Amino acid sequence: MNFLVSNDDGYLSPGVRVLATRLKRLGSVTIVAPDRDRSGASNSLTLSRPLRPRLIEPGVWAVDGTPSDCVHLAIQGLLPEVPDLVVSGINHGANLGDDVLYSGTVAAATEGRSLGLPAIAVSSTAHVPQHLDAAADVVADLVGRLVNHPLPALTLLNVNVPDLPADQLKSMIATRLGRRHPSSGIVRDADPRGREIFWIGAAGEGADAGEGTDFAAVAAGHVSVTPIQFDMTRHGVMDAVSHWLA
Amino acid sequence: MNFLVSNDDGYLSPGVRVLATRLKRLGSVTIVAPDRDRSGASNSLTLSRPLRPRLIEPGVWAVDGTPSDCVHLAIQGLLPEVPDLVVSGINHGANLGDDVLYSGTVAAATEGRSLGLPAIAVSSTAHVPQHLDAAADVVADLVGRLVNHPLPALTLLNVNVPDLPADQLKSMIATRLGRRHPSSGIVRDADPRGREIFWIGAAGEGADAGEGTDFAAVAAGHVSVTPIQFDMTRHGVMDAVSHWLA
Amino acid sequence: MNFLVSNDDGYLSPGVRVLATRLKRLGSVTIVAPDRDRSGASNSLTLSRPLRPRLIEPGVWAVDGTPSDCVHLAIQGLLPEVPDLVVSGINHGANLGDDVLYSGTVAAATEGRSLGLPAIAVSSTAHVPQHLDAAADVVADLVGRLVNHPLPALTLLNVNVPDLPADQLKSMIATRLGRRHPSSGIVRDADPRGREIFWIGAAGEGADAGEGTDFAAVAAGHVSVTPIQFDMTRHGVMDAVSHWLA
Amino acid sequence: MNFLVSNDDGYLSPGVRVLATRLKRLGSVTIVAPDRDRSGASNSLTLSRPLRPRLIEPGVWAVDGTPSDCVHLAIQGLLPEVPDLVVSGINHGANLGDDVLYSGTVAAATEGRSLGLPAIAVSSTAHVPQHLDAAADVVADLVGRLVNHPLPALTLLNVNVPDLPADQLKSMIATRLGRRHPSSGIVRDADPRGREIFWIGAAGEGADAGEGTDFAAVAAGHVSVTPIQFDMTRHGVMDAVSHWLA
Prior knowledge:
Chain A is an alpha/beta fold. Chain A is built from seven helices and 13 strands. In chain A, 28% of the residues lie in helices and 26% in strands.
């Protein structure tokens, strides 16, 4: 099995390296990842300028672009063969609830799924994870299950792993995305030259973090596995909209 | 009614100006838009640096950030009052099918909806539209309908208007998102210094462009109105995934 | 006479517009300027990606690059004719002493001079100038003098104009560059997510601001005109270095 | 002796690593360098946003900024002690003649000199150097000479080393900067979406590459050592300018 591994923290991130090392026990692995931290890039694709992938070492490409750029390049012609499966991560920091909308980690997996490959996005709940090996083992386990039970088109797995030693991790459970409270308001400040600046505020806490959500799962020590999709049509309201357009 | 208007082509784009002018007949309008073209930005939010919104003229802010940044800033504290409705566009160029995943136009509307406001994303099918007035009239019409028939949470409208004179536009119809073929492969080239570069290829044609899709609607001269959502949980496969995780 | 006008504050800056309007009385004028604020860009040239100049209105190009890029593009093929003279400015804020090393305003003029054209860089001492017309009149006056008295190769004029009404401006005097004290130390801070950030400190006050310097001239209400050069060889120490290398 | 080592190719460049390793024989060494290739950055300083230096490994900082940013941060507060000497390089590719105006390698050294430290910029003539060790030995030799024979204020050394084995390198000679022909014209092209783009053309060949220049020295296999300065006042024309301003 040929794995394409990417992320949004950059090719030097410990998370992507531990993941690649673990997956090598299952097949061949190529990392194609941003040349620097591109967290929060969402699905953005770089169309206005060319990209310059660099082969840093055998099996490791660094790209001056977004996570989606990396996976797109890799599958659409950079690599000699189309890979069998895309894994994005291990992100340093959770991607729960609405985070998935902004997440470059999820975007890299989405790009792979959009191009027809099975895909997994995986995040550790810690910003400085201590137990990446345990999270990598979780991915290896999931890969086997996913290959045996393919998901429908436009559907992938978003996995969050509590940063715990393997023997303290509870079981993997299927979850739905919760919801965060809106971020705190924007932060007004001044730069050292006295000019006004604004920062986007920190992300909010879980608002819908109840039973069945990804928030609840990781809070209880479980590995959260959320099937997510990017068929964005809201089929359920189609009739109503048709009616009020008429 | 207070409108927040944004886009991804930048605050100087004719599309956003024509839209704002038209909506002023319905209420007060503030433009908060990127200071330059940010097409393809998707939902990316700028967290790594502060933003510097500039009041260019009364009611027009330019922000050195993404479309999502603009709407986030506007609602979370830049403007004195939270607006009543967010309209993003009029984009120069269609946003059909998978385009919505990458679109900054849709992202600006999504950010508004995520923060609780009704939201519309609107695109003209032409890259150099000749009939922006007609498209703006469509938006004005839709605003009234949307206010009277609120959509569920996490749901907004993605509207594509053929670039035709008002009297040649066919009716508004509710559509589902179609699908594009994958883009053509990456384009290898060399820069003037002889170094290899890669471009992301052009977007593919409609693959699922049949009956009921947004592609089919605009091809037939209709205004396509797609209810889209960003609850990304794939509820339909939850039981299956639970089963194979067990 | 054909003027090429550029700056580093961007093509929308009042300074560049007032300058262009004034120079139109002397000949034809084309603005080729950055599409946004590129202050502090120094002489950087964009080699890693292509540029996309946009004709915003007749005679006004906006470029997604640095001030040096703008002048380079304009002279090396964007414009139908090579211009006769390059004027960069009117910058909002002084460019005195060591500022010239970092200044995009000076860099645009340097690029023009490097490509063989006479060149003037001009700055108003105010960040929000009130008397741009007076500064533009100074430039118009200097243009005539410069054309009649060409400077040696690799030499141009760096002009700083106090932000005063024309009738309060004292005479133009030739000055040498003074020196600033080093900027205040770097400013440590934290972003809203608690991560450490560092700002470059504000520029220092004049350290060598005495008799004959540009600092002293503008402080006294004079227009400072400094002949600057970019032959960077330190000829005076060549023998000493030869000696200690032997 | 405490060395600060920087460059413009990024902290991962072999050139900067070989240089740091060699200088460790002479004292303690800290690398503070860009997190990616910033060639052509000239003296630009990042004032519009904060910087995020990351300690990659003991003694190695990567900065999301320009070469000048790196040296400025290092000296103005990032490092516990102000270093004794700044060495920038070993650049992959020559910095000859007018190159110094645009060079980030030279800019890093200039920033150090501007803040009062002796400084050396060093480049290998090859884009993929095979003999970095020989070039590093040259630097180690020069360091001793420079410390014994300090240069005047605002003066530093720009060194270009032919990419040859140590035993084939000819002597170090003091040179003046030559001049390049202007670059070839801009290159018009189209991106894969059919939109017009422009590339800055490749640098020109040596125009003044005669006796005594840096071009001539390296062509003959010598190590070129050019004393360069950034007192940009053109003192020699001051009287003339005073006269025609009067």
